[in-house]
Amino acid sequence: MVPVPSGWLRILNVSSGHLLSQTYLSLPPVSAPSSSKSLSYPESWATQWAFIRASAFGFDNPGNRAYIIRNRLTGAYLRCQSSKFEHRGKTPGSVNAWEIICYGNLDMWRLEINAQSKWKIVHQMTGFLLEEAVVPLLDGKELVCATKTADRRKTWTFT
Q1: Cα–Cα nearest to 1, from 78, 68, 69, 65
Q2: What pLDDT, on a 0 to 100 scale, did the predictor assign at position 72?
Q3: Does CATH place domain 11-158 in 3.30.420.40?
Q4: Could you tell me the residue ranges of all domains in the chain?
Q5: Per-residue pLDDT tens for 93-122?
Q6: Rounded Cα–Cα distance for residues 113 and 17 (Å)
Q7: What is the per-residue pLDDT for 87?
């Protein structure tokens, strides 16, 4: 069993090498090209995230191995919700981090490791995987959470 890393870390997409990033509460998180700045620079806080056990928020069920994912710069929690875009249908699909309030099931994720020792970030309620989409958004790529099929765009490493 591999432990989930603690502290502030960067979440890197295996397929593109882009980092999960959020610069403002009013903007969605994106997968953006990585910079070489160390974790100690405040400018890099947009790309730093922490995995917090859901039980720390009072969401404590026996055997619950869920985490809440929080951005260091904005203080917001990563969330999967029903898509607001018609072309995606009615399944959950949008990923956002607009609020600094944790809402439980919408914000809970579990982490699974694959055979290549890479992480899958799985939405607890739907079972859908966090994915870097091919759609450009802001200075990076859009993040979605819409299918359970594994591939490299849905695989992450932590640095």
Answers
A1: 65
A2: 96
A3: no
A4: 11-158
A5: 778 888 898 888 778 999 999 989 999 999
A6: 18
A7: 46
